[in-house]
Amino acid sequence: MAPIDSDDSTTAGGGEEPRAGRRRAARYVVPVAVMGVAAATIGLVPALADSGDPDLPEVTAQQLIEKIARSDVQQLSGTVRISTDLGLPDLGGLESGLMSGVSGGPGAGGGDGSAADPSAKLTELVSGTHTLRVAADGPDRQKLSLLESAAEYSLIHDGKDVWGYDSESNEVYHSTARTGAERPAEQVPATPKDFAEQALDAVDDTTSVTVDGTAQVAGRDAYRLVIKPRQSGSTVGVISVAVDAKTGMPLKFTLTPSSGGAAVVDAGFTKVSFAKPDASTFDFTPPKGAKVTEGDEKAAAPERNPKAEGDLAEGLDRLEVIGEGWNTIAAFDTGGEGLPPASAGGDAGGALGGFLGSFGDQVKGDFGSGTVFKTRLVNALVTEDGKVYAGAVTKDALVKAADAAQ
Predict the structure, then answer these.
(1) Helix axes 61-70, 18-27, angle to 10 degrees
(2) Which of 148, 162, 221, 283 would give a disulfide with 54, using CB separation of 3.0 to 4.6 Å?
C-alpha cells in the first residue's frame, strides 16, 4: 500500500486544534502499565522484520493518533523482542555495576542488595539483545519475564504485591506496589506503547507526522506512523510506530538516528494476544530455600555527603532549558569543577579524569574547554568549570549552546 499522507502534522481532525489534540492523545497512549517496575532504558534484538502489506482503509496522521488515544487495551499476553544500540563503549560489565550503584541496587553501598531487586536487575537491559514475555490483566496485575540463556528473571505485580525472582541465584525480592505517579513503569519505557507515548508527547510544530503505508507485526495488520524532526541538529532521525489497526495499540517502535545505521531502539511484539491471561499467570510463591529480601527492610543507604548533595541540588535548581522541540538542551551547573585533568599524575582524580576523558571528545570554544560524551542518541558536554549541557543533539549543537551561554 502506498504512503497515505505526505505530511499531516498540521491537519486537525474533527475541527480540533492539532497540537492540543496530539498532546491530549499523548497522555492516554499507554492505557496499561505492563510492569509496575521497569528498566531505565530497554534494549532488544536486531530490527524485527515486518511482513506483508495489508490493504487497510486510508487514515490521516491525526486520525491515527486519536485512534491510539482511544485504545483501551486492558488485557494482553505476548513476547517482546528488544534491541538497543546506543554505541556505548564496552566496559566489560562495568556499566552494569555503575547503573546498579546509581539505582541503589546490588553493588551500591556494599553489595547488601538482592540479585532479584528489579532496580538493579533490569539495568541489564540497557544494551544488548533481550526477549521478554509480558502479560497484563488490568492496572493491578502484570508480569514480565526476562528470558536468558540458562535462567529467567520474572517480575510480577499482583494487587498490592510486587515480586522479583531470579532463578539463577534463587533469590526473591518483595515490595509493596506503588500507585499513581509513583509507579516507575509510568516514567520509564518498557514496551512499544511506552516508547510511543514518549515520542508523541514530543510532537509539536517542530515535528512532521505522517502515515506511511501498512505492515504486519506479530501476525496483525498495522498502520505505520512516522515521526520526524523538522529541525536540523537533532540526533533523532526517524521514529516509526506500527499501530494495530483494530485496537489502536502500538505493536512496534523503531528509532533510527540522524547519523544513519542500525536502529538505536527497536522494540516489537513477535507474538501477541488480547485474550484475558489465566489468573495463575500472576500467582507467585517463593520457592523452597530461596533467599527473600523485603524491599522495606533493605540495608541502610551508604553514608551521605551533604555538601556534595547540596551542591548538586543547587545546580539542578538552576536547570535551564535551551532551544525548543527536538533541539532542546538541558543546562545546569554542578557547582564544582569539570573532569579532573589526566595530567594530575598519580592522583586518583586525575586517573579517573583520564579514564572518562578517553571515552569523550575534547572540545574548545568561547566557553573554554570541555569533554563531549557521545552516544548515538544522547550527548553531553561537561565543561572545565563544571557546567553540563545535554540533549538528543549533535556535538556541534552542544558547543554552540555553551558558547551562547557566555
Answers:
(1) 30
(2) 221
> For residues 52 and 91, is the Cβ–Cβ distance under 8 A?
no
- Taking the chain (406 residues) in runs of 10, the rounded mean pLDDT of each run is 41 39 34 27 32 85 90 94 81 43 38 76 77 93 89 93 94 81 44 74 84 95 95 93 95 94 93 96 95 72 56 64 91 74 47 56 92 92 92 95 91
For the chain, the domain total comes to: 2
Q: Output the nine-digit C-alpha cell for 277.
A: 491471561
- Specify which residues 365 forms β-bridges with: 368
- Coil, helix or strand at residue 162: strand
Nearest of 406, 386, 402 to residue 333 by alpha carbon: 386
Place of cell 538482592: 114
- Return the residue matching grid coordinates 507526522: 209
Q: Which amino acid is at 192?
A: P
**Domain boundaries, position 135:** 18-295
pTM, full prediction: 0.73
Inter-axis angle of helices 61-70 and 192-201, to 10 degrees?
Answer: 130
Work out the burial of residue 366: count CB atoms within 10 Å of its CB; fewer than 13 is exposed, 13-18 middle, 19 or more buried.
Answer: exposed
311 and 284 both lie in a single domain: no
Q: Do 299 and 343 contact (CB within 8 A), yes or no?
A: no
Residues in the chain: 406
Q: Are residues 154 and 203 in the same domain?
A: yes
Q: For residues 281 and 152, state if they share a domain.
A: yes
CA 119 from chain centre, in angstroms, equals: 14
The 3-class SS string of 173-233 reads: EEEECCCHHHCHHHCCCCCHHHHHHHHHHCCCCCEEEEEEEEEEECCEEEEEEEEEECCCC
Q: What is the CATH number of the domain that holds 352?
A: 3.30.310
Show which of 272, 295, 318 is a domain's final residue.
295
Place of cell 498502520: 223
